[in-house]
Design brief:
Helices cover 4% and strands 49% of the residues. It is mostly beta strands. The chain has one domain: Sandwich (Jelly Rolls), CATH 2.60.120. The strands form 6 sheets. It has a 7-stranded antiparallel sheet, with no helix packed on it. β7 and β8 form a beta hairpin. It is globular and about 55 Å long. Bound molecules: manganese (II) ion. Manganese (II) ion (MN) binds next to β5.
């Protein structure tokens, strides 16, 4: 069979700092706003800390999306305006469906390991689901598919028979791949999905080419398999899905369709009309930034 697929494409990333926490924003970036329904991808850490609180993000709202928090090390406490509370640890899925509106906080618990390393992804909700009531799921029981030389955890969606319990509204998949030292994996991909992959730990080659850590590689669509090899072992994150068929607008923590929707949600947050307070969080809510920047369109 002929293979006319283009080579994999390294997307540019932006580094930012949240206090002492280093953040690599790999989506959205210039030239690529989405991969399937995935519209945001941040890697934070790894960080080793002592007295300070490594993460302390006060109450802020989201609309029109799902947030997926996935830790590689350390712990975060999630609280939200539904009253949900979860101590999130590595291997746990923290999945917040914003729908028409939710507010949440994310903070390092008082009792902690002194480590923080993880990612946050956002999934855009399709038109049919974006006005649903909000929801939150926290689970430690994620299915894994085992292979000779490694394993894959289905974080959201399904991968090769492993099906995440996370509620899904936009077709697609998020998965963590582990490759054992000195091993290779040939993983099945869905040809109708476009994919992105990022090495978060160790070393790996993708289709024989070494890739850099914290760089998101766009694999495109039409591939039936993903060929990986690692000398010293690796952890890699994979996101994918059918190209999202709707144009979205992203601004601050909102995913919408029009600037008017964003302005309305911003005003409602400022007027305390969008969502209720986050119980248990002691600290001020985050004010919306002024609406002067251009929203990021897909
Ligand atoms: Mn948030």
């Amino acid at each position: 069979m002929s293979n006319l697929l283009p080579s994999i494409e390294a997307l540019p990333d932006r580094s930012l700092r949240l206090g002492s926490l280093e953040v690599h924003r790999v989506l959205p970036v210039r030239g690529r706003r989405m991969i399937g329904p995935w519209c945001f991808f941040d890697r934070f850490g790894p960080l080793r800390f002592e007295a300070e609180k490594a993460m302390d993000v006060g109450p802020h709202p989201h609309i029109g999306l799902q947030t997926v928090t996935w830790l590689l090390a350390g712990e975060i406490v999630h609280n939200d305006s539904l009253g949900s509370e979860c101590l999130v640890k590595p291997g746990h899925l923290s999945l917040m469906t914003a729908g028409r509106g939710i507010a949440h906080t994310e903070e390092t618990p008082a009792q902690n390991s002194g480590l923080l390393d993880g990612v946050q992804f956002w999934v855009a909700l399709p038109e049919s689901s974006r006005w649903l009531p909000p929801g939150y799921q926290c689970t430690s029981a994620l299915p894994r598919q085992h292979y000779r030389g490694g394993e894959v955890t289905a974080i959201l969606g399904a991968f090769d028979g492993a099906v995440s319990p996370g509620h899904q509204f936009s077709p697609g998949v998020g998965a963590e791949i582990r490759v054992e030292p000195g091993s290779g994996l040939n993983l099945p991909l869905d040809r109708s999905f476009e994919y992105g992959a990022m090495l978060v730990d160790g070393d790996i080659t993708v289709f024989g080419a070494p890739v850099e850590r914290n760089t998101l590689y766009y694999l495109g669509a039409g591939r039936g398999e993903l060929g990986l090899k690692s000398a010293g072992g690796a952890r890699m994150l994979l996101i994918g899905g059918p190209p999202f068929g709707e144009r979205i607008l992203m601004w601050w923590n909102f995913v919408a369709r029009t600037a008017d929707e964003i302005l309305a949600a911003r005003q409602q947050w400022e007027n305390r009309e969008l969502v209720g307070d986050v119980p248990r969080y002691k600290g001020p809510r985050l004010p919306a930034p002024p609406f002067i920047g251009r929203p990021i369109g897909s």
